[in-house]
Write the structure tokens for this entry.
Amino acid sequence: MNTLELINKNEEKIKDIFKSIDETALFYSKKVLDTFHKNGLTESAFNSTTGYGFNDYGRELIEKIYADLFNAEDAIVRNQFVSGSHALCVTLFAFLRPNDLLLSITGTPYDTLHNIIGINDNPSSLKSFGVKYDQIDLINDDFDYNKISEYLKNNKVKVIEIQRSKGYSTRKSLTIDKLEKVIKIIKSIDENIIVMIDNCYCEMVERINPIEVGADAVVGSLIKNLGGGITPNGGYVVGKSDLIELVGERLTLPGEGKEVGPTLGINKSILQGLYMAPSVVASSLKTAVLTSAVLSDLGYKVSPLYDEARADIVQNIEFGNPDDLIKYVQGIQAGSAIDANAIPIACELPGYDDPIIMASGSFTQGSSIELSCDGPVREPYIAYQQGGLTYEYGKLGLITAIEYMNK
Ligand SMILES: *Cc1c(COP(=O)(O)O)cnc(C)c1O
């Protein structure tokens, strides 16, 4: 069977899944439009400020729109956050003080958090300021509910970090129903614990967001789902107003907080990115489902399976050998929009532990809502694929990658 026949056969099989992805895209498109209307979005929101950025009407409107979208009390959405990792860093430093205890209940956090927390020695880490850290691993891809309860009864925890997406691990990403269950347990033991969610890659995939099941603060990246491939950089935090205020005071300066922050012309692209996001997330999900079906057909282990419930836009393909992994990633690069003739090789990246091979021929550097594929070159040789600004480009990228492996 040639590649095109393989794709066509699998597209037939996944028709119903695409239909439900389209329904969710419609749900979120309506939600975005409703928040635009409720907040009276006008063209003047695209105006820009410089310098201190006092009274930036568009910035304040964007933050109201984000708060409404998540049903949160407040939001901070800024280009002064470099990306999601920086938003997570600022949020943790905003909430934690010396001798406070930070607990991850989803095992080892995402690689870029290792230096922030001090899991890797770093003279600027939370640990260097005397913030303590502990973690509880997942069991069978779910929270270790008993261990968490026991731990919270015996230790005074200030912040609990929950990472929904799998990051560079082989576990499954966490669906909202599991989040709901664990947050109920946490709050029943100590309602003052701050539950902070790393929401990267999960926005607009399920219809309920972590705030709606009791999370106190939710953090994400604007070069992923909610940037819709349009926003050039930034991050967001939504949640309780007192917590958002703390984040503002840490991002800028105590005393000025959210009142300052020049937008330098970015407002339009944040709003337009959000407007596009439901459709772009849907394209990305469809690309992931097709990839899962096709690569599984070719004999590779995939996660999630094409018909499995998804919590994020990430598709794992386990190649089992370095050669197929490297060729596939090189093929995704060859099928990209930008730098298609570059040949990715594995190398060390700041903030990551193993050599990473990465295909990212994207308009925005490092954007993984655009078709991108990367993975640490170590056993069992898993590629993590995300994105596709349109399903058509995602599908073409997949075809190129498969043909590359056959070379
Ligand atoms: C991508 C990601 C981050 C970091 O976001 P950037 O915008 O790339 O800095 C953090 N946590 C998880 C789980 C991620 O997937």
Q: What stands out?
A: The chain has a mean pLDDT of 96. The pocket of pyridoxal-5'-phosphate is lined by residues 83-85, 110, 112, 163, 165, 167, 198, 200-201, 221, 223-224 (CB under 6 Å). DSSP finds eleven helices and twelve strands in the chain. Residues 267-297 form the longest helix (31 residues).
